[in-house]
Amino acid sequence: MIESEKSVRATDVELKDRLVAINRVTKVTKGGRHFSFSAIVVVGDEQSIVGHGLGKANEVTEAISKAVEEAKKNLRRVAVINDTLPHTIKSKYSGAQVFLKPASAGTGVIAGGAMRAVLESAGIKNVLAKSQGSSNPHNVVKATIKALLSLRDANSVAHQRGVSLEKVFNG
Question: How would you classify residue 97: left for phi > 0, otherwise alpha for psi between -120 and 50, otherwise beta?
Answer without folding.
Answer: beta
